[in-house]
Design a protein that fits this description.
globular, 13 strands, alpha+beta, five-stranded mixed β-sheet
Length: about 325
């Protein structure tokens, strides 16, 4: 189902302009990325698990020191719950500048947009970045740096729009290979590459391929990327960032306070499972019921952010083919 945005953990659906050879690095050299991790929110096991299992040298980390860091951040969150209760409620949006109407029309006319955003009402508006509710725990600062270099300093409103809502759908590099007689693999530096879906194709739909026989049909599995829009879900009076966390961080870090965003409006929480992602679907109460949920601005709060070094990863999608043959009654 296309409306369901791919899980942004650990990297959101931001196109990363990195070549595959550079991502692979030199043989024997471990590449490391700095991540900002949000500390202090329950459960503590998520924080301990991230540092211990994913960070460089995490297996040797002092668990007592980590627990103290978490408790200190949790105390700060309790203060925020008193001082900023309701800050995420009834967040307002504003209309885009009329000069962006042409770019907006390009997005809404895009076949990918029309295919992938059908389930709930969808609009494009300007949102306040700081008050967006976030559920992604970690931000990769190397990716942020690449995004910012691609956007450039002092970007125009048109450049920011294209940055947030690209309709040209540029994609990171992908290496595809056959790894067994019945298996294929796709390797990408982007964590949002995925199997888009299977399809039964007629022989007329397959062009440029000659099999070793007379084709009557083809079963295909498409691998690629979901729609790369900076998007949020409007639910229970709150705006929850659903895709594009790294772009939101990059803009906020550059001093941009408002940005164009694709907004899907949910009228009941049951719809979240169809269009939401990650922890928002698994634990919606953390983001919709708390008086002061995690917000985008928390990534920049020195009392809530911890820098963690994490080995650079590539995402692999493996597709295996199984064929069964049997005789059945006519």
């Amino acid at each position: 189902m296309c409306d369901s945005v791919p899980d942004p953990e650990p990297v959101s659906g931001d196109v990363i302009d990195a070549g595959l050879p550079a991502m692979l690095g030199q043989a024997g050299a471990q590449q490391v990325d700095d991540h900002v991790f949000l500390v202090g929110r329950p459960p503590i096991e998520e924080y301990l698990g991230f540092v211990v299992s994913q960070s460089v040298g995490g297996q040797n980390a002092n668990h007592g020191m980590l627990a103290d860091e978490w408790r200190s951040a949790n105390d700060h969150i309790r203060e925020l719950e008193k001082n900023e209760a309701g800050i995420a409620n009834d967040i307002g949006t504003s209309s885009l500048d009329e000069r962006l109407n042409r770019l907006t029309a390009n997005v809404t006319a895009d076949p990918v947009f029309q295919k992938c955003f059908q389930l709930v009402p969808t609009d494009i508006a300007q949102v306040e970045l700081d008050r967006l509710v976030v559920f992604q725990k970690a931000i990769n600062l190397r990716y942020v740096d690449e995004l910012q270099r691609g956007l450039g300093k002092n970007p125009s409103a048109e450049s920011v729009f294209r940055f947030c809502l690209p309709h040209d759908h540029q994609t990171p590099p992908v290496k595809a290979m056959q790894i067994a007689q019945n298996a294929y693999a796709f390797l990408s530096p982007s964590m949002v590459i995925r199997a888009i879906g299977p399809a039964l194709l007629s022989k007329d739909q397959v062009v440029g391929y000659q099999p070793g026989g007379v084709m009557v049909g083809t079963v295909a599995v498409s691998v690629g990327y979901g729609p790369n829009y900076f998007s949020a879900i409007h639910v229970d009076g709150r705006l929850v960032l659903n895709n594009g966390s790294h772009r939101a961080y990059a803009l906020r870090d550059m001093g941009v306070t408002r940005a164009p965003c694709l907004i899907q409006t949910v009228s009941r929480r049951d719809e979240l499972s169809a269009i939401g992602a990650g922890d928002l679907v698994a634990n919606p109460e953390r983001y919709l019921d708390e008086v002061r949920p995690p917000l985008l601005k928390d990534y920049f709060d020195p009392k809530l952010r911890k820098l963690v070094k994490v080995p650079t990863k590539l995402r692999q999608i493996r597709v295996s083919i199984g064929i069964e043959q049997s005789d059945v009654p006519a």
